[in-house]
Amino acid sequence: MRAKNLIFFLYLTVTYLITLSYSCQTQEKSEQADDSKTVVTGQIIGLNNALLILQKFEYPRSKLIDTVRTDENGQFTFRINLDTPIVALVRASRGFLPIYLEPGDSVTVYGRFDNWSYYKAVGNRGSELLYRQIGLLATTAEEYFGTSNLFGLSMLLKRKPLEDPQVQTYYRQLFQFMDTTNHPVAMWFLFFVDTDRLADSVRKYAQKFKTTFGNHPLYEEVRKMITDKLRTAPGSEAPDFSAPNPNGKIIRLSELRGNVVLLQFWASWCKPCRRNNPKLVALYDQYNDKGFEIFSFSIDTDRGKWVQAIKADNLKWQYHASDLKGWKSPIAQLYKITHTPTYILISPTGHIIAYDIHPSLLEEEVAKAMQEFGSK
């Protein structure tokens, strides 16, 4: 840990001991009045006289439990009724810190939202496992990738090959924790695994956690998360859908089974999409007679502009569809589309080969798929 981090950590430790002593005295008095409450107390550095939220982790959106205001030193206390064990998020507009809670627990948490290397939580084994592992991963991430935010790290990891030594070190720490930790909180760390490139690992841990923690309340939220993450992961069956073509005829993605399919999400107003369309036309011309098809789904809302763009770009394949609902399209949401263009390769059996292919890699990925699956 760098020198400045060490100094700050020592400062936090002293502050924490003062806070813990105060909280223990306060808790002793409060327990006489009501010992059924679950208590979360602590300090968020840099969050003074501000609204703080306690949420229950649920997938895909966490559920509000309570709100309080921090004092002038960033200190706070939540007292809540809790029936089952949960992962909770101490959150404000600038970030959050996770903790593990069981009914009747008293947990103390402190740290900074902008740097998880300084985060600490004590009071039960689950919270201590959380903070120690997050601290280890955050320190590694800051050293290697320049960020301690593990959720923001996911995009940085995608830019590096899995064979990169730094990426290997990060995942070795993560997988070792999930392999050796016999506590339900280990399930939560599946959030930090790149499902697109490590789908087999996610499936392995999904089965492990189902066997070990299938009856734990947290497992259901993790199961929903895994199901959603794997929906578009390589190896998963591509979700089927139907939508109108420009003439109003309903067409289905599954009609193209038996071919290698490039599923394109695009729009007439999307400049990168339009710039890349000539590349798709060239791929179609090169491979169509060898079992290659393109299915283009538009997130346009204006039918006229959509049809005009198809003609202008000479998108000669037959499978064009849109529900003209823009970003609110259930089909775009089914495939977790957050940007255009998005390119997805699908095998002749209807399974995803590659998801969200970068335009610069499109020719390479299609060539590999055709070499493996295309007709000779």
Question: Can you give keywords for this protein?
Answer:
single chain; 376 residues; alpha+beta; Immunoglobulin-like; Glutaredoxin; 2 domains; five-stranded mixed β-sheet; four-stranded mixed β-sheet
The domain count comes to 2
Query: Largest beta sheet: what is the strand line-up?
Result: 13-12-11-14-15
Question: What fold name goes in the CATH topology slot of the largest domain?
Answer: Immunoglobulin-like
Task: Determine the oligomeric state from the structure.
Answer: single chain
Mean pLDDT across all amino acids? 89
Identify the overall geometry. elongated
Work out the helix count.
10
**SSE order, as H and E?**
HEEEEEEEEHHHHHEEEHEHEHEEH
Main beta sheet strand tally, sense and closure = 5 strands, mixed
CATH superfamily name of the largest domain? Immunoglobulins
What is the CATH C-level name of the largest domain?
Answer: Mainly Beta
Count of extended strands: 15
Strand composition percent = 15-25%
Architecture (CATH level 2) name of the largest domain: Sandwich
| Terminal CA distance | 57 Å
What is the share of helical residues?
25-40%
Structural class: alpha+beta
Concise account of the structure shown:
This protein is α+β, with helices and mostly antiparallel strands and 376 residues long.
Task: Tell me what the structure shows.
The chain is of the alpha+beta class. It folds into two domains: 3-230, Immunoglobulins (Immunoglobulin-like, Sandwich), CATH 2.60.40.10; 242-373, Glutaredoxin, CATH 3.40.30. The chain contains ten helices and 15 strands. The protein has helices spanning 3-33, 125-145, 153-158, 165-180, 199-213, 217-230, 271-287, 303-312, 330-334, 362-373, and strands spanning 38-44, 51-56, 63-69, 75-80, 86-92, 95-101, 106-112, 115-122, 242-244, 250-252, 260-266, 292-298, 319-321, 342-346, 352-355. The strands form four sheets. Strands 13-12-11-14-15 form a five-stranded mixed β-sheet, with helices on one face. The chain has a four-stranded mixed β-sheet with strand order 4-1-7-8. Strands 3-2-5-6 form a four-stranded antiparallel β-sheet. Strand 12 (292-298), helix 8 and strand 13 form a beta-alpha-beta unit. Helix 2 (125-145) runs antiparallel to helix 4 and helix 5 runs antiparallel to helix 6 (217-230).
